Amino acid sequence: MTQTELAIIGLGKIARDQHVPALAASPAFTLAATVDPVSRREDVPAFTNISTFLAQMPEVGAVSLCTPPQVRFAVAREALLAGRHVLLEKPPGTTVSEVMTLERIARDQGRTLFTAWHSQFAPGIPAARDWLAPRRITAITVTWREDVRRWHPGQDWIFEPGGTGVFDPGINAYSVLTAILPVALYTTGGTLEVPANRETPIAAQLTMRTEEGAPVDLDFDFRETGTQTWDMLIRTDQGDLALSQGGARIVADGALISDEGALAGEYDRIYARFAELIAKGESDVDLTPFRHVADAMMLGRHKQTDAFAW
Amino acid sequence: MTQTELAIIGLGKIARDQHVPALAASPAFTLAATVDPVSRREDVPAFTNISTFLAQMPEVGAVSLCTPPQVRFAVAREALLAGRHVLLEKPPGTTVSEVMTLERIARDQGRTLFTAWHSQFAPGIPAARDWLAPRRITAITVTWREDVRRWHPGQDWIFEPGGTGVFDPGINAYSVLTAILPVALYTTGGTLEVPANRETPIAAQLTMRTEEGAPVDLDFDFRETGTQTWDMLIRTDQGDLALSQGGARIVADGALISDEGALAGEYDRIYARFAELIAKGESDVDLTPFRHVADAMMLGRHKQTDAFAW
Lengths: 310, 310
Description:
Radius of gyration of chain A: 19 Å
Strand content of chain A: 25-35%
Largest sheet of chain A: 9 strands, mixed
Shape of chain A: globular
Oligomer: homodimer
CATH class of the largest domain in chain A: Alpha Beta
Largest interface: A-B, 35 and 35 residues
CATH superfamily of the largest domain in chain A: Dihydrodipicolinate Reductase, domain 2
Distance between the termini of chain A: 46 Å
Structural class of chain A: alpha/beta
């Protein structure tokens, strides 16, 4: 199999923790360069500027964008217009409109654009979707509580406009929900707790409904220093499904139907999917999770809370 | 021509000022009922409850939803599921996801759903679009300043979550922009001024860019007690276009290309379009203006401002 050369743009925590190892194991891709204003690796060419990279390495056919979302659009647009396939880490941008514009540019250029929602590649997702498909949802509770200092140390961009605050992990919950539920959801209200010295929520309590009216309660919190929780409980007319560890472990009607380590293989499957899309000449742009964030930000009541410092 | 019987749901200011006269003049529709918890007319049956209306008047084939947006989704869903064609006054709901769900239900039901952006039916819109089509946009300024006490007296829902505050008129500016520009826009930032005692912005200063990077500055203000202004200036590589009175008056390259009264004929054209969609068995669901509001609410910095009282 001929490997596609790929560059990582934005060599931060998620790139080092997940993308680099997944690329090292990928039969489809090989890491050919990095682009980052400060970070670099010694084993591949390092650029500090996207334009220079695009001009000097035309043989690199694909890029993975792992930068903070605030600079994503301009870089992705430039890469697509230069004929590269583009994988967007989550969240795919700062606004839904940006990503829709990228989708159109990718189509015009005949290149692949892939919004990689890593939680949709969690090991238990297919089993959960299959189990839920024939059932009627009656109620859902989502608890997504983690310690921002542990998972995003010093990442101030999270609390800047476009960083979405606690929706940075919360969007993973949305991406799981929309991947496994047989019905559409919409937001009905909620509270957004914004630190006095920051711009985006550090916690959010939200209500949604399924299209048929079943209640959905979501509890997102970035201040959880105890047990880290990425759980949902989905009640149906024929038993309940409990998802934990962000989608790794699934118990349905009391029986364990999936139990692998959290994040196991997520990024391997993401790169396999990216290779498949490129081979087929297709894009995969799923905007639903991001739209739920935008809807929550539009409908939520702002409530000022304690100033936040790292 | 056989007229379609139509019910107005939500007999408030916009229904009385615009929908009732437009229906009286329409060759395609006739007002057959109203549904409103308090208001009524003497000339047609009046209901206080949507379910009762749907059950008792199956011959009424279409409804216009003029309620505040917070109750729009449930009512529209019920009407579509009961086989009625639905016109949604702007804004079409409280979240983009809601309206996308309605779009799917309309498709499943084989009924027409129409998001009626009245400003897109302003008299100067076609001339502006044609004039701009071959030109390259270099800069845009939008000034949308009106007195909320004059245009929305006592309408507290505007300042409740889902009411969108100053975006209620601002969305008209977005709907004009997206109707006349040959390029996509996306929001890059801004400030949202929220009264200390309210939930939604009373003013907003926003920046957008065209896809090609041209700057777009928007000034939305609900506190304008002086001259009411609904203007935009669009600079291009071949002259400028000035739109005023919300799209009624257009001056392009110094020449007047459209000058009719503000709102002249907007609702007549809306109902003609609704009739055309029903005849063709199509829907027209344009979510772009609403998505720009959601993007602005997601990206804007909140700034507390003076408490607001009517």
